User: What shape does this take?
Amino acid sequence: MPIEIDLSGRSAIVTGAGRGIGCETAQLLARAGARVMIADIDEASARAAAEQIRALGGQALGVRTDVTNPDDARALAQATLDAFGRIDILVNNAARWTTKLFKDMTPQDYDADIRVTLYGTLNVSRAVLDAMMEQKAGRIVNLISDAGRIGEPYLTVYSAAKGGVAAFTKALAKEVGRYNITVNGIAPGITHTPGAQEFIQGAGGEEKLAKAYPLRRLAQPTDIANAILFLASDLSAYMTGQIFSVSGGYSTVG
Ligand SMILES: NC(=O)c1ccc[n+]([C@@H]2O[C@H](COP(=O)([O-])OP(=O)(O)OC[C@H]3O[C@@H](n4cnc5c(N)ncnc54)[C@H](O)[C@@H]3O)[C@@H](O)[C@H]2O)c1
Assistant: This one.
């Protein structure tokens, strides 16, 4: 009998899902049967991504959310409960990065990167936790980055913020395991998304960058979304507090 991932009856929030990895993840979760709340600071893209899922027969709603704002995060959790009755899966995907040497960064630059990448993850996680604890079930998947595991030049503050998300992932997993909530992280390598184009071009283009990857290519959003789907599903039930690089072998840290 083929093995299936069936998320029907489950409800998911994906932040920053108006485009890129988040959008691909929302589509995949919906294809597996989940009802998906697409949260993005860009309301038009959140609504368009939800419409795309509905056009393919899935269930999705799009809502404007600024993850840096704890009130928005609480409103997002409430809107999901109102619409779907539960919150089973949270994918903390929204992030922001400034590509500069650290010596050229201003405190405003680092504030902005840390507020979206780290505080955004804390705000939305905090907002969904009561519902997950009451249900005695939940899956939280945090987008990290190899930058947060091994450090990347030109992405120093982003590396620091993602390192913070990595430590938060491990610590929260230890707190909430008793409620049958798992918390894991996915660390993508460079992935073809709208947000990464400037970095890819600035670093010399795909062909040059791909040489650093044992699998000799950069990731597509679907490569990352597949791993998130696994961590959101029952197949990963006994895995928590772990961070997995999905980066074509670029980073092999434990
Ligand atoms: N693309 C890569 O190469 C790469 C590599 C490693 C890790 N990642 C991680 O994967 C995740 C997705 O990256 P991506 O490349 O798809 O990004 P992207 O820039 O293409 O998309 C990010 C989305 O987040 C939204 N967003 C930004 N600020 C927000 C806020 N305050 N509140 C809500 N939404 C907000 C944007 O509107 C956008 O739709 C991020 O966590 C990123 O750090 C990406």
Notes: The chain has a mean pLDDT of 97. The beta strands are 11-15, 35-40, 59-64, 89-92, 138-143, 181-188, 243-246. The longest strand covers residues 181-188.
